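Dear H.,

Thanks for agreeing to be a second pair of eyes. The structure we're designing against is below in token form, covering all 200 positions.
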């Protein structure tokens, strides 16, 4: 499994989806509770910058992984952050490094393949969030989704998913015969049936 190739495919798919967003779409609700599309993309932008720093061997505090002030062109900012993360992961020696990921642990580092796997899984799931928000399809091949499922099944489903800042919610029941993408979503606490609430 070439985790960098898989990650690149997931990130480029998020860009493809976001390029379809109209100006009025940025205030839409998303499957991420209490986040609009603009807020979700700000989160994803910050994550790209955090992972790019980690790939370069830089240890940052949690603040570096959180969004800054709102920007006028969220797609432009997201595209630049995506390119920075993908370039950092493509660097020749990156797979020999340990990544500091303070959102997961402030006491240990993670092998590059594991850390990039986290990034990959996050962008498969957030790619679905974006697609569902905008009412478009998520275009990832079955092999990519199955690789994400392997990683999703390794995420502990314990009390760490119960806090207000948890990255994922407790796993949900899965319908018999569910597709791999639905399994990824339910394993991480998302309902594949999510739809935007009706306007008030």
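And this is the sequence the design step returned. I haven't edited it by hand at all.
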């Amino acid at each position: 499994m070439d985790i960098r190739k898989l990650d690149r495919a997931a990130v480029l798919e998020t860009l493809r989806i976001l390029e379809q967003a109209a100006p009025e779409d940025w205030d839409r609700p998303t499957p991420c509770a209490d986040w609009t599309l603009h807020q979700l993309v700000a989160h994803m932008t910050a994550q790209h910058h955090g992972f790019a720093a980690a790939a370069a061997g830089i240890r940052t505090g949690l603040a570096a992984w959180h969004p800054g002030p709102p920007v006028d062109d969220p797609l432009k900012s997201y595209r630049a952050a995506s390119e920075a993360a993908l370039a950092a992961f493509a660097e020749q020696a990156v797979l020999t490094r340990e990544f500091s990921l303070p959102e997961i642990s402030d006491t240990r580092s993670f092998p590059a393949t594991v850390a990039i796997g986290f990034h990959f899984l996050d962008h498969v799931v957030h790619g679905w969030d974006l697609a569902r928000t905008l009412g478009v399809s998520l275009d990832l091949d079955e092999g990519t989704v199955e690789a994400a499922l392997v990683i999703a099944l390794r995420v502990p489903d314990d009390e760490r998913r119960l806090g207000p800042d948890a990255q994922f919610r407790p796993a949900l029941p899965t319908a018999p015969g569910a597709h791999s993408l639905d399994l990824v979503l339910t394993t991480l606490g998302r309902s594949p049936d999510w739809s935007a609430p009706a306007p008030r």
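Two observations from my side: DSSP finds six helices and two strands in the chain. The radius of gyration is 16 Å.

Warmly,
E.
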